[in-house]
Structures are given as structure tokens and as C-alpha cells.
Design a protein that fits this description.
The protein has about 450 residues and is an all-alpha fold. The chain contains 16 helices and no strands.
Length: about 450
């Protein structure tokens, strides 16, 4: 029977929702120090981040399906254990290959957490509280993404990059203790269904090929990987439509307009917003000549707005149609991105902070209602796979966002490092990226508005 309130579940999921994005964004600040310690090339260094994202993305949906069959709390607990142990391996990694391999294992543990967290919240709280609970959870996600560079910079500067992973171990232990209190026997809606192993392999090869190929653009090799990925994706979809117990029920997308368009909107939103903090961090430090600590104080404007507004946006989506609230949020994000297109070396910090506040409000108004709409559109037995699909949209969007950024950098900045590049070229690159992201996000408004009604 579903608990009316389950604070330990909320605590465990909220901490994990903060920790995993925090790790990714904090490590971006520490990459130069990691590269110097291991004498890594720029390409090798990029795998410290990409290995985690790829491993998580490839395993998210299969693990979400496994959690529906064998138990979400159990998979969440195992994921927290794997994430924590692999974080400790990262602390003691003697070589860069060991660090990257540890990050792959960490990504799998992260996927076990991502694929079950939202489903646990939906399962353990009544429908009239979903928006508020999801708002709290999503405030943690965005706070982790945005606060990460500031806190990561402080830890790296004063103690060294390994302390980021030490912090991760500490938080992981808290998650384990919180979830162990509730990891009892649970009702399994898909207990007697089979797991599609062949489909999982096709799905993994497809995503790896597409995302790895995208990272190689504009080389010819990239085209081969992307075409292979698309071919495997077509075979995967065809297989899922034919078998009795699919890994991913394609009919959720074909027959469920709310679910399909909510996931599309999530993919677009993360693609349009993930690289904003990365670009502003470079701009503030290399153009405005702010220190990492000063940069963090500027960038913290966004998570403050998110922390206050996400629960409010969630409650709004309990009372009004999520498609309206989320579409307004996406529209504010487009305005914020458009304003950033006009930044120059002389742009004031007040202007930047105003843009961040607007973007933070847009993120908050979009995210909570969008997740509420997605999870409310499916039956209980699909909560795990729906949660995993949303998480896949998030991480895939993040990969594409950084892919767009690196592609523009490759054309404008060439082989120069950021530190040696001309500031005007850096600003030109950022403005082009903001323009592309604003156009993508405009498409997201239509995807969000087209999903249909949730409240009957």
C-alpha cells in the first residue's frame, strides 16, 4: 500500500537529485588540474565527463525496466551503493584510465538512481502532492547543476580535485542510510514480465553510436557512427513494437500524446539550457576577469530563484494544466537566451544576473509541471520506465548541448585552448551558441503547448 507521506524517500531522492548533477558540473572546474596531474590530452580529459554521461544514458532505460520488474527501492539502493563505492575508487585512482573506468561504473550507479528516483516519489506520495514534491526534487537537480562549479572551484582550489569525490562519498552514505529505512517488500506491478536483453543491447549500441558520433563532428567518422546508431534505433523500435514484453513500450509515445510531447519538451529544454552555465563561467573568468569565487557568486543567482520557485511551480501544476505553466516557463527561457545573445565585453554584471534570474524562473516554471505531466500520463506499472525515459531525455539533452558548444568552438576558436583564445572570438562563439539554443528552445514551446490536458 502506498504511504501518504514518506520523508525518508523524499530525503534520499532529493539528495541524489542534487548530488549527481553537482558532480558533473563541479568536475568541469577541476578538469585542468586533473589533466595536469595525469598529463592527459584534451580529448582524453573530455572522457572524464563523457564516460559518465554515456554510461548513464545507455543504461537508464534498461535499468528503469529492471526496476519495474524487480523493485524500484531495491535498484535505487544498489545504485547508491555502486555510486558511492565507485566515487571512492575515483579518489584513489592512480592513473587516468582507472579514473575514467571508475567514472563509467559511477555512471551505471547514477543511472540506477536516475531511473528510479522520480518513480519512487510518484509511488510514495498521493496525487494531490505530486507537483509540490516534484518541485522540491527538481529544485535540488538544478541547484546541483548550477552550484557545482562554484563549490567545485572552492574544493579544488583549497583542497584538490579528489575532495569533490570525497564529498560525493559522504553524500552517498547519507542516501544509503535514508533509503535502507524504507527498502522493504514493495508491490511489483511488472513482476511476471520478462526483460528484453536483445533490445537492451540494440538500444545501447544505438545511443552510444549516435552520441559518440555527435562528439566527433564534423569528421567523416562521425557520420558512420551516427548512421549506425540510427540503423540500430530503427531495428530497436521495430523490435519493441513486435514483442510481448518490450524494454520500452513504444505505444507510450504513439498512443500517449501527453507522454510523448512532455519527453520531447524535456529533451529540448535540457539541450537549450545545459551549456549556459559553462559559457557564462568562461565569459566571467576570461572576459570579465572574475575569480572562480566571484564567478560563483554571480552564477548562484539562478539556483536561488530555482530553489524558491520550483515548489511553487509544482503546486501550480497541481491546480492548473501543466502544459500552460511549462510553456510559459519555456517562453521565459527563450527570452533569457535571446538577451544573452547581445553580451559584449562591456556588458554589466547586473545585466548578466538579470538574465540568470529570468532563466531560473523559466527553468522552475517548466520543469516541475513537465515532470508532473509526464508521470501523471502513465499507469503505475510504467512509473519506473517513465522516470528512466525522462532522465534519458535530460542526459541526452545535456550531451547535445555540450556537443553544439564544442562544434561552434571548433569552427570559431579552432585548436586554441580557451585560455589562449581571443576574448572577442570567445564572445562570438558564445553569442552564436545562445542564438542556436534560443531557436531550439522556441521549438520546445510548441512541443510543450501541444501535449494536451492532464487534469480531467
Amino acid at each position: 500500500m502506498t504511504d501518504k507521506n514518506n520523508p525518508p524517500i523524499l530525503l534520499a531522492v532529493t539528495i541524489s537529485s542534487f548530488l549527481t548533477p553537482f558532480m558533473g558540473s563541479a568536475l568541469n572546474v577541476a578538469l585542468p588540474m586533473i589533466g595536469r596531474e595525469y598529463s592527459m590530452s584534451a580529448l582524453a580529459l573530455s572522457w572524464v565527463i563523457s564516460s559518465f554521461l554515456l554510461a548513464a544514458t545507455i543504461t537508464l532505460v534498461p535499468l528503469g525496466r529492471i526496476s519495474d520488474i524487480y523493485g524500484r527501492k531495491k535498484i535505487f539502493l544498489y545504485g547508491a551503493l555502486i555510486f558511492t563505492v565507485s566515487s571512492s575508487f575515483c579518489i584513489w585512482a592512480p592513473t587516468s584510465p582507472v579514473l575514467i573506468f571508475s567514472r563509467v561504473i559511477q555512471g551505471i550507479g547514477g543511472a540506477m538512481i536516475f531511473s528510479t528516483g522520480t518513480a519512487l516519489l510518484i509511488s510514495d506520495y498521493p496525487q494531490h502532492k505530486r507537483g509540490r514534491i516534484l518541485g522540491i526534487n527538481l529544485a535540488a537537480v538544478y541547484s546541483g547543476l548550477t552550484i557545482g562549479p562554484f563549490v567545485g572551484g572552492l574544493l579544488t582550489h583549497h583542497f584538490g580535485w579528489r575532495y569533490i569525490f570525497l564529498f560525493s562519498v559522504f553524500m552517498g552514505v547519507l542516501i544509503i542510510f535514508a533509503i535502507m529505512r524504507t527498502a522493504k517488500q514493495e508491490h511489483l506491478e511488472a513482476r511476471n514480465e520478462r526483460f528484453d536483453l536483445a533490445g537492451s543491447l540494440l538500444y545501447g549500441i544505438s545511443l552510444f553510436s549516435i552520441m559518440y558520433g555527435f562528439s566527433l563532428l564534423p569528421s567523416l567518422t562521425a557520420s558512420g557512427f551516427i548512421l549506425l546508431g540510427i540503423a540500430c534505433l530503427v531495428f530497436f523500435i521495430t523490435r519493441q513494437l513486435k514483442i510481448s514484453f518490450p524494454l520500452l513500450d513504444i505505444h507510450l509515445f504513439i498512443d500517449n500524446k501527453v507522454f510523448a510531447f512532455s519527453n520531447l519538451a524535456a529533451l529540448i529544454n535540457y539541450c537549450a539550457t545545459f551549456s549556459i552555465t559553462f559559457l557564462l563561467s568562461l565569459y566571467l573568468q576570461h572576459v570579465k576577469m572574475l575569480s572562480p569565487a566571484q564567478t560563483g557568486f554571480v552564477l548562484v543567482a539562478e539556483p536561488i530563484v530555482l530553489a524558491f520557485c520550483s515548489p511553487f511551480a509544482g503546486r501550480l501544476s497541481d491546480r492548473f494544466e501543466p502544459q500552460i505553466i511549462a510553456s510559459i516557463g519555456m517562453s521565459l527561457t527563450v527570452i533569457g537566451l535571446t538577451l544573452l545573445i547581445f553580451i559584449t565585453p562591456e556588458t554589466s554584471l547586473r545585466y548578466i544576473i538579470s538574465c540568470l534570474i529570468l532563466l531560473g524562473l523559466g527553468f522552475a516554471l517548466f520543469s516541475s509541471p513537465n515532470v508532473n505531466a509526464t508521470m501523471s500520463a502513465v499507469e503505475n506499472k510504467f512509473y519506473g520506465i517513465a522516470s528512466a525515459t525522462l532522465a534519458t531525455m535530460r542526459i541526452t539533452g545535456q550531451m547535445f548541448s555540450m556537443g553544439i558548444t564544442m562544434l561552434v568552438f571548433a569552427f570559431i576558436l579552432g585548436q586554441h585552448t580557451i585560455a589562449l583564445a581571443d576574448n572577442l572570438l570567445l564572445i562570438k562563439s558564445a553569442r552564436i551558441i545562445y542564438f542556436i539554443l534560443a531557436v531550439i528552445c522556441t521549438g520546445g514551446i510548441f512541443a510543450s503547448a501541444s501535449r494536451g490536458k492532464v487534469h480531467k
